[in-house]
Design goal:
315 residues, seven-stranded mixed β-sheet, 11 helices, 30% helix, globular, binds NADP nicotinamide-adenine-dinucleotide phosphate
Length: 315
C-alpha cells in the first residue's frame, strides 16, 4: 500500500513516499481503507522536532504520522461487535501514540472510531476528529460549560477554535472569539457572539469575567487569559504543557483552575461529535483540499498558522 514515512525529524523533504505492507489488525481493531485524512499542528511539530517525534513514536522508525481519518472498514477483528465490513467510520486513531494514518490502510482500535453520519462527506468527517475532540474534551469533559456561561475562545477562526465555538454555542454559552480582522466575518458567521481582533483590540478591555477560556495560543496569552477570567473560572491552554510558575501562581491567587489538556482518542466522544454533525449542529469548515501526493504542501500550508477552519487530504 501507499504510505508516507519519516525516518528522522526535519523539513518536509523528510516525508518519504513508499510502498509498505498493509497493517495486520489485532482482535480489537478494524482495518480502514482511508478515503480522507486531516492534519493538525501536531503533525508538523512532530515532523520537525526529534523530541516530539520520540515522545509519540519512541524508537520506532520509520514513523508513519497522521491521526485523523475517515474511510471504510474492510476487515474487522474477532472481538469487534459495533462495526461491520463496509461501514464508513471516522476518528482520531491512537493519540497520543502511533497513528499511522498517512497510508492507504489503517489499523484502528474499534474504540477510537464512530460511524460516519451519511449526511456528511468523508472530507467533513476526517477533519472533525482531533480538533473537534479537543474542543469537546475541554468544553464538556473538563469545563462543564453550561447555558449562560461566558466563554472566550482564542484562535476562533482555526481548526480547534471553529469547532469549539459551535460546541460552546450548542451548550448555550455566550461566545467571544478572537482572530485577526480578515477572519472577522468567518468567526461571526460560525456563531460567535462577539469578535475581538487581537491585532488591534485589547482583550482585557473587553472581557474580564469569562467563566471559561480556551487558549490556543499560549505564551503571554496565558497571563491575558487569567485577566479575562472571573474568580473561580476555568482556563484550558492547549499548545504546550509548559505553563510558567508566574502564571500558575497568578491563576491560583485568583482561584482560577488553569491547566493544560492533551486530547485523547475516544470513540465515546467521537459518537457525540457524530451525533452533532448528523443533526447539523456541528459543521466542518474545510477551507483547502490537498491530494495525498501534496502532503508536503499541506504541512507547509498549515505551518503558516493562518488556516481558516481545517484542511483535508484525499487519498
Ligand atoms: N493539547 C492538545 O491536545 C491540542 C489539540 C489540538 C491543537 N492543539 C494546539 O492548539 C493550537 C491551535 O491548533 P489549531 O489546529 O486550531 O491551529 P490552526 O488551525 O493552525 O490555527 C490557525 C488560526 O489561528 C489564528 N491565530 C493565529 N495567531 C492568533 C492569535 N495570536 N490570536 C488569535 N488567533 C490567532 C489564525 O487566525 P488569524 O490568521 O486571523 O490570525 C488562524 O485562523 C496549536 O498550537 C496546536 O498544536 C493542542
Amino acid at each position: 500500500m501507499k504510505a508516507i514515512i519519516l525516518n528522522e525529524a526535519g523539513c518536509v523533504e523528510n516525508l518519504k513516499y513508499v510502498d509498505i505492507p498493509k497493517p495486520k489488525i489485532t482482535s480489537d481493531e478494524v482495518l480502514v481503507k482511508t478515503i480522507s485524512l486531516s492534519i493538525n499542528p501536531v503533525d508538523y511539530k512532530v515532523r520537525a522536532n526529534t523530541g516530539s517525534l520520540n515522545w509519540l513514536f519512541k524508537n520506532e522508525r520509520p514513523a508513519v504520522l497522521g491521526w485523523d481519518l475517515s474511510g471504510t472498514i474492510v476487515e474487522i477483528g474477532e472481538n469487534v461487535t459495533d462495526f461491520k465490513v463496509g461501514d464508513a467510520v471516522f476518528g482520531m486513531v491512537n493519540f497520543p501514540g502511533k497513528g499511522n494514518v498517512y497510508a492507504e490502510f489503517v489499523a484502528a482500535p474499534a474504540t477510537h472510531v464512530a460511524l460516519k453520519p451519511s449526511n456528511i462527506s468523508h472530507q467533513e468527517a476526517a477533519t472533525a476528529t482531533l480538533a473537534a475532540l479537543i474542543a469537546w474534551q475541554t468544553l464538556v469533559n473538563k469545563g462543564n460549560v453550561k447555558k449562560g456561561d461566558k466563554v472566550l475562545i482564542h484562535g476562533a477562526s482555526g481548526g480547534v477554535g471553529h469547532y469549539a465555538t459551535q460546541i460552546a454555542k450548542y451548550l448555550g454559552a455566550y461566545v467571544i472569539g478572537t482572530s485577526s480582522a480578515k477572519n472577522r466575518e468567518f468567526v461571526l458567521q460560525n456563531g460567535t457572539d462577539k469578535h475581538v481582533d487581537y491585532t488591534t483590540e485589547n482583550i482585557l478591555e473587553i472581557v474580564s469575567d469569562a467563566d471559561f477560556v480556551l487558549d490556543t495560543i499560549a505564551g503571554d496569552n496565558i497571563s491575558k487569559s487569567i485577566d479575562s477570567t472571573k474568580t473561580g473560572g476555568i482556563i484550558v491552554t492547549i499548545p504546550s504543557g509548559n505553563i510558567s510558575n508566574a502564571d500558575i501562581n497568578k491563576a491560583k491567587s485568583k482561584g482560577i483552575d488553569l491547566s493544560f489538556l492533551l486530547v485523547e482518542s475516544s470513540g465515546v466522544d467521537m459518537l457525540k461529535i457524530a451525533q452533532l454533525m448528523e443533526r447539523g449542529i456541528l459543521k466542518s469548515h474545510v477551507s483547502k483540499t490537498f491530494s495525498f501526493d501534496e502532503m508536503k504542501d499541506a504541512h507547509l500550508y498549515l505551518e503558516k498558522g493562518r488556516t481558516i477552519g481545517k484542511i483535508v487530504i484525499n487519498i
